[in-house]
């Protein structure tokens, strides 16, 4: 069975055998986009101190055909509680998902808004949430989805911000953009059955809330680089802008996940590493799947080992990402330092316990911390429908090859551009442009490039977060700063401050605020001098 | 009759009454794109030391529809006579017209290539020359023309340069982009009849060679700003990047033309200023047009005064642009300091001579310096066809409002965004996006913005050139430099060096070379340090 996913995200998607697609599974299955289909209660919209607005956005910024100027309504949220005209504007560059979830889970901005008298603006990303260029038909095909890409999204932000400042009569306000995570309000794991395809094909999809974190953070950095006349600076938290082409070793992501577990406990790492083979051996036995169904408390009998692998895989990868120092409910409710908690579970069994038993118990921490779940939905039937925007983006421009090395705790796997392209063609009818991102935005030798251009960017990364390996981890210039925390995880800085925050987290936020204050302190005198000339 | 053109370019286009368009003339007539129709001999392709290549270019860089990946062949020229692997690459970002004309008329690059051991690359702009995405149907409608815009062109350059460096195994070569003029090899004035439309509507089109100069130079600056990871620096000569929105006063262009003539001779300026009314008065008389036909040696009897106005207008505007210190043949063969020469002609008549007589004689310098022309084609019949790419670009994104003030030597006129948009809709079926360029590229408070981002750009401007008023005329930072020459004209620095060049021109080129050398001297050690890390 194909081992480790060799694709860009640890958010794997499995292709359901839908009538509208080939029955042979592919790289990019169609996850359940519709939360209702996942039979999970759609979490009620959080109560957040923002007003909702809609901006008439241009469909295609980069061609001038008659249809290019079609208007769709892009949602954005505003908090003006602390603001006055002329004061800074903090813009959160939205990503895949309902913008309310982002706003609800980026308490950091609410924490610092008073100090800066900042206007807070959260802009929903096109093709997500309510911001659908073609209404319910937005995901119909490559014809409609074709307009979903990062350059169109950045231009959306540029137009919206400019228009907003004009309408608020506050064109002199400095704008700072933020790319951070989006704390889910109970992420829903949606797993869809996939028959194995040779050389890797196990993917697991989480709901869009998880994807968001990735795209958002890179967008803020790219926005400052491409639109320095609109944003005076950017805070890009956990932004893997170097996870393209061969800038970052392809194995680094899964090596980092493995390192998190290994550092918690060598035994823990070894148990997980050895569990895949044990699972495979069991599934090959007569009644093996039945036993697995019992062991894993599957709501319905399992048909294949794939879903078990995916279920475990996701738990470990996501837990590494959200290895926060305090109790949190980012994607799932978890205790503080959940990687350590998982390893404690694994290590806590009597010495005769099987690896399968141990890893199931550990993963259950991720899925069932509340102990409310009676069974787990490891498999979904073939009625899942809908394409996820991130899958599209992954198949077009956001191509991030990933492999699993011998040192990782996952089964080894490789990545093939050719097979990847074939799968994307099969699924979406499009060919990826795997080197487009580095042509459009750069990345190679970034320290050389940005030393002589660009400025006012903070790249923050927590080393628990596997995405950090694709990030900027060293200062590039006096105004392009890398803030690295050994114990930080994915966008930890963007969470609301709590009384239990460790000192290093408080210090990280303090430094970010100080740097941003510096940009703003520089801006107003610059502006004054310019106005005089 | 509507006076001064209130539109962006001094290159005016007049709508021919074509069967496929409305018979009521509009802002944007359809000039004769086909040189053969203009009954001018198409100048034979110059002999230039470049090899021709074709690059398989992507049609649409910013959407991912199936048709977006359509390939067309983009022409580019290469001179590798002085180059070795690893040495710098100088790229000339092409613009509207056959790339050979550019290469033939940018002798500056050939002059400096040996010193830098530079590879010279001239890239043809999409939708011009041979680089037609839809072959002969490229100009058919907004459906095809929609792909003609500056962001697509910049992305073309990015992809091509990256690919070229890869194929030459010279990925470490520093790339410098150049935006300069394109010396025409005898620009052809093509005039097409236009019935007046209220509030301005006289336009005159020159062949594409003239338009080119404008677009090219801004593209180099924008390329360095958007793709600093591909070009380490840019020399943008006569680049009016501030001629958008209300950054530059709308009257500045025609005020600058007028200032050139006024400085040559106050009387000259006053004669030209007074000639329009005299012409109008004459044309209103019985047999007035017949007399004008004789005075202006029109090849065919004139039907309206418009073409006479346009003929004169163009001569004065273009002569100001190319007011070079030496004999030149940029758009038309002219003596050194042709503005002064024209004014000498105007002032040289006996005191009783009419203004009409004087201005005709002066303008003849532009059209007939060689004295070979027996008559002048002031009007063309309604059989002109074809759309010019620049007209399209002017109607979509390159919106540069221009007006004529009371102080100018042209009849006063205004600009109306509303009327402009209506005309563009009538002509091309598209609505302009008049503020898109400043959203996408910036421009407002550029000194504030680029002080904290960007770097390694030279903006050179000659103050004889009316386009200079929309350029960057002051240093912005230690590496964004403005080189201004009082006596310089349009892209004077890009012409080949001659023994007659004045000292200020030699000094201008010397400084440019020194600054570029500085970028390159910085680059190689930077690269070495990066490779070590």
From TrEMBL, chains A, B:
Keywords, sorted A to Z: Glycoprotein, Hydrolase, Protease, Signal
Signal peptide: 1-23
GO biological process, any: proteolysis
TM segment ranges: none
Pfam families, sorted: Peptidase_S28
SUPFAM superfamilies associated with the record: alpha/beta-Hydrolases (SSF53474)
Source organism, top-level taxon: Eukaryota
UniProt key word tRNA processing: no
Family stated for the protein in its record: Belongs to the peptidase S28 family.
Protein name: Lysosomal Pro-X carboxypeptidase
Organism of provenance: Populus alba x Populus x berolinensis
